[in-house]
Amino acid sequence: MQQIRIDAPTSLRTSASSSSASERVMWLNADRVLYVGLHGEPSLRTLGAISIYVSLKCPHKICIDGETWRETEFSVVPAGMPHRIASGERMICNVLIESETVDLQSLPDYIRNGRGAVDAPAALRAMRDALERFKRCALRQYERTEDFDRNFFGCALPTRPIDRRIRAVLDRIKQDPNSHTSAEDCAVASHLSVSRFLHLFKSEVGSPFRSFRTWQRARSVLYYVTQSANLANIALDVGYPDSTHFSHSIRQVYGLTPKSIFAGCRKLALYGSGAAATPRYGFP
Hints:
This protein folds into two domains: 3-153, Jelly Rolls, CATH 2.60.120.10; 164-256, Arc Repressor Mutant, subunit A (Orthogonal Bundle), CATH 1.10.10.60. The chain is 36% helix and 18% strand. It has helices spanning 10-13, 109-112, 121-136, 145-153, 164-175, 183-189, 194-205, 209-220, 231-237, 243-254, 258-264; strands at residues 3-5, 25-28, 32-38, 50-54, 60-64, 70-72, 74-77, 83-87, 91-97, 116-117, 269-273. Helix 6 packs across helix 7 (194-205).
């Protein structure tokens, strides 16, 4: 699998060997995201992936779907679950696991049953140790998703068996999340009626087709966050019809406006792996 360094400023390249707690980094491929950076002040957010939050020093507070706030150093949020998070420090670590890539029932207990604050001190220590190993690594790359998993979870997470027709649709969307792939087109390609396709997709993936497509488009914005291009141009490039729709959709997902996200990522070192790690705007 091709490995790609995405738009990391020259000033940041010299700091690759530094394990400074203040260093901001993100690594992502089509299946996982590792983010260590500014927390900001997000409002309600609904991420389309399983989200793991790890405090770097001070505990954070998390509120799941309007329930009571809880203070913790380690929390897990199921995919598609609305939540609010408040950090006791400027930075936080967030790991995303795309739920369609894993067998949910075979995941470690703290991920499978996680719903907000979790009590898993060994897993917390392992995640923090993995983050330090990542920062000390000169290349800061993982050739495969399995390699990322082994570093952060101790083993390759079990994969979910998915109908080959639905798998082809998933691959198509994830390889080009900015395209306007319709359910009708996917149904035809899958040799299914639209209603049957939508039912099978939700059954196999665990989320409705439209929700999955919306999340993948919003997720693709992460590949652009160190770009200095006009946000309106980026909005069009990632498939949004206009900047208003772009801002509204991104705020619904991340709880922050695109302007806030891009401003907070100015000093971020961004790394990626795979074909999806090549955003079109500003690249040959």
